[in-house]
Amino acid sequence: MHLKIALLGGDGIGPEVLAQSVKCLKAIEETFNHNFELVEAPVGAIAISGTGKPLPDSTLKLCHEADAILFGAIGALEYDNNPEAKVRPEQGLLKLRKELGLFANIRPVKMFQSLIKNSPLKENIVKGTDLVIFRELTGGIYFGEKHINQDGTVASDLCEYSEKEISRIAHMAFKAAKKRKKKLTLVDKANVLESSRLWRKTVTEIGKSYPEVKFECMFIDNAAVQMMLNPSQFDVILTDNMFGDILSDQGSVIIGSVGLLPSASIGANNAMFEPFHGSYPQAKGKNIANPVASIFSTAMLLQHFGLDEEANAIVFAVHESFAKKVVTADILGSSKYGTDYVGDFISEHIVDSDENLNINDENIGLGKSTII
């Protein structure tokens, strides 16, 4: 298969972890006889310094032309320390999602048995956790009209959703639930917010078309608590932009490291894959960042194009790194191996083998259950 893949390393540790994903893509290319055209482009703070824009026109053009995008991370300390900056790196990512119509963010959260001691929560709580969060990504309060009065003492952010925006991601989530454990939980705040009441009304009606899926609704405050008390009760979580952002952060706590969680952002014609973590600028250039989330995101990219065996080969290689404890310092307390070494180990253990078909129980939900 030939795929043109845009590489947007971004800021901080983004380029470092993305480089490890590239190693894996090249190993897949060689092992499975594919052809990946990899094209780099700037985004975020690095793009602002070069062009004055967090998303240059040339980068956006490349993303439109590419079959898929691999994204690193975005954000820099000079902007974190200057919250009033008019041009910010994060604007590049938000614009990219909007321009490409990437309305569905899919974030699998699975507790690996081999890393269960890495979680700050008790084993009996996190064991068996295997859920996926479907977060609406291009609507809601993050994209709504914003206003602040002249003297800066009153501000507002509009949270607005249409039935169409809700319906398209709801159908994706129900289809995913059909292929998983057949349970979907809508997380909202319908007892207070009018936008949440529209979510509940719309999703409840859509749920009637999926009678095989158990459908329930849960308020965001209760869902946040239940994620910490009994995360294994969840299968597919469907929610809006802001609530999905919050619950995804909790998912990283359950697993024990934000460096393990991948994500996919899917639209009608485009797809982007990125690690869940941020740019972590304090670690830039220190060779300590965990590349696994980026590498798992690469596996999600492959599976998006039906390359299941290739994706499994990557996941199997990552599990080999876990088994041999070839991991970065955020996992298992090891400080022996750096980003580059872990990336080398994983890419070198990508093989075309029947063994890859035997890892489904440890799969992080990268399959067709999450990418529709």
TrEMBL record:
Top-level division of the source organism's lineage: Bacteria
Keywords: Amino-acid biosynthesis, Branched-chain amino acid biosynthesis, Leucine biosynthesis, Magnesium, Manganese, Metal-binding, NAD, Oxidoreductase
Annotated family: Belongs to the isocitrate and isopropylmalate dehydrogenases family. LeuB type 1 subfamily.
Catalysed reaction equations from the record: (2R,3S)-3-isopropylmalate + NAD(+) = 4-methyl-2-oxopentanoate + CO2 + NADH
Gene Ontology CC, one term: cytosol
InterPro entries: IsoCit/isopropylmalate_DH_CS, IsoPropMal-DH-like_dom, Isopropylmalate_DH
Subunit description: Homodimer.
NCBIfam families reported for this sequence: leuB
Gene Ontology biological-process entries: L-leucine biosynthetic process
Name of this chain's protein: 3-isopropylmalate dehydrogenase
Stretches assigned to the Isopropylmalate dehydrogenase-like domain: 4-346
Gene3D superfamilies on file: Isopropylmalate Dehydrogenase
GO terms of molecular function: 3-isopropylmalate dehydrogenase activity; magnesium ion binding; NAD binding
UniProt-listed Enzyme Commission number(s): 1.1.1.85
Co-factor remark: Binds 1 Mg(2+) or Mn(2+) ion per subunit.
Cofactor(s) this protein cannot do without: Mg(2+); Mn(2+)
Pathway: Amino-acid biosynthesis; L-leucine biosynthesis; L-leucine from 3-methyl-2-oxobutanoate: step 3/4
Function comment: Catalyzes the oxidation of 3-carboxy-2-hydroxy-4-methylpentanoate (3-isopropylmalate) to 3-carboxy-4-methyl-2-oxopentanoate. The product decarboxylates to 4-methyl-2 oxopentanoate.
